[in-house]
Amino acid sequence: MPNEGKDRPVYVISVAAELVDMHPQTLRLYERKGLIRPGRSSGKTRLYSERDIEYLKEIRRLTQELGVNLAGVEEVMRLQHELDDLQDDFEAEIKRIETAIEEKVNSQPLALPSKAGQVDPKDRPVYVISIAAELVDMHPQTLRLYERKGLIRPGRSSGKTRLYSERDIDHLREIRRFTQELGVNLAGVEEIMRLRHRLEDMQAAFEKDISRIHQDLTERMTHFRTLPPPQETDEE
Description:
The chain is mostly helical. About 60% of the residues lie in helices and about 5% in strands. The protein has helices at about 5, 15-20, 25-30, 50-65, 70-100, 130-135, 140-150, 165-180, 185-225; strands at about 40, 45, 155, 160-165.
């Protein structure tokens, strides 16, 4: 299992609460909110892993140091769980490919990801800043501020004009939802968007790496099948 050491459930709730300087009832609340996902013993006792402890310390940082409200923390932790799950999926896929190589699976080619080598249309930069601002009902200066904060990453034309993609528009609408509907402060939004960008980058890297590995494996298997048979030698 990927990261088995960090994911091993070992701490009962009283010890976990002491490690992160929180009340056990707070840990139960965070579990109900889906912010942490402790394991269970055979007797249904909550058991927390090192990863859970890291999550709890991050929650404390967000709430106490950055003043992020619970709605913002929920989004941050949801993205963090997605990142960790994606990393686990990547490691599991690498293990699966290694197993296929060891077993010399060459009867049929491995399927390549459907998006291999393609650019997602949502990432195509098409909107100038005035149009993008109108689409999300914001002032262009607000979009420039969000770019400086790293919340969005618009492209540039050959003349250095900002060009926004559909994904940028989605991000801006999400930012507006967090700030206006959920009351998340800017520090919380920065954390959310940092993780969202990291997740999207990791997903793209995941597809690229798996595609490259599959292609390399296919080429190796093709080469292996086309090798001439070994020549028999006559013994005197």
